[in-house]
Design goal:
Elements lengths: L1 H18 L3 E5 L3 H5 L1 H12 L6 E5 L4 E5 L3 H11 L2 E3 L2 E7 L43 H9 L5 E5 L8 E4 L37
Antiparallel strand pairs: 1-3, 1-5, 2-3, 4-5, 6-7
Length: 207
């Protein structure tokens, strides 16, 4: 029982150590570290004393350095001993690099029920059916009345009242007729559009 308990404790501690990050982020690093080769070697030597296999990633624009250790214990030891320590006359601050897991390393396609939002859609959603276009509305009475009219005649669609104007259809004259005036150059004059007259306003007796 003692051996099993000790083995369980060791397994638990191993899992916890494996979950610890093995990288540190150095913030507000002096700009001389990025520009001077000798000072950069001194900076790297501080961390290689804890782990010879340490690698570095320098981000000059952010004045930060990512220090990657081969062991999480070495990263924790370096953080405890070098955090807020003095380097080149300035305080150095170290933080653990948090690893972000976003699930699958590959970019998965969108779910089928969301694909119809893409323009053009990859495929219609489940249950989608194409709608049939409505038949155009044809007024056969109007067509029949117009067919009986000759050039220059008119057909009243809606009789006017005191509040609404009347709607009258005028049949255009034949293009071959020579009644239209011609301007200089042989071009026909643009016909004049007659505006619809507004009905006379009759005040009601209540007013």
């Amino acid at each position: 029982m003692q051996q099993s308990e000790s083995g369980g404790v060791a397994a638990t501690s191993e899992v916890q150590l494996n979950e610890q990050p093995n990288a540190l982020i150095a913030c507000k690093v002096p700009e001389e570290v990025f520009n001077e080769h000798q000072l950069k070697e001194q900076f790297e030597a501080l961390f290689r004393a804890f782990d010879p296999g340490t690698s570095f990633q320098f981000f000059k624009s952010f004045r930060r350095v990512r220090i990657n250790f081969t062991d999480s214990l070495a990263a924790a030891d370096a953080r405890v001993k070098l955090h807020k320590s003095d380097f080149n006359g300035k305080e150095m601050r170290l933080y653990f690099a948090q690893s972000v897991h976003i699930g699958s390393p590959r970019l998965e396609p969108p779910k089928p029920e969301k694909q119809f939002l893409i323009s053009p859609p990859a495929s219609p959603p489940v249950g989608w059916e194409q709608s049939l276009d409505a038949k155009p509305g044809i007024n056969y009475d109007l067509l029949c009345a117009l067919s009986k009219l000759g050039p220059g005649e008119q057909y009243e669609l809606h009789t006017g009242t005191t509040d609404t104007p009347s709607v009258i259809v005028h049949v255009c004259e034949d293009d071959s007729s020579g009644g239209e005036e011609e301007t200089e150059g042989g071009k026909r004059a643009r016909p004049r559009i007659i505006q619809t007259r507004r009905p006379d306003y009759v005040p009601s007796e209540n007013q």
